[in-house]
Amino acid sequence: MLALTDSTFTAHLASAERPVLVYFWATWCPPCRMIGPVLAELETELAEVVQIVKVDVDTAVETARSQRIMGAPTLNLYRDGELVHSMVGARPKHALLRELEPHLGATTGR
Question: Is the pTM of this model over 0.85?
């Protein structure tokens, strides 16, 4: 999973050719450790539909602040550089897919 920083976040979202799901996480966050492997699976399964990247809120402080991240994990879905959906907290894979599907279309295969 590609890690974005304060210096790469905005440019990456602006140049993305498909929606980007940004996983805002922290090393000290137990729910992040639970959802991390789920996102790694989805990164492979949905590679043609959405790009999944991560941002460490402790090292990318300006990005976390500008995106108004109040808790970890937070999953923000961006399309054309604009926030279209936000989720806070860990979820099982099926619940995550169900919540993302309206924003990604039927191409998720779920």
Answer: yes
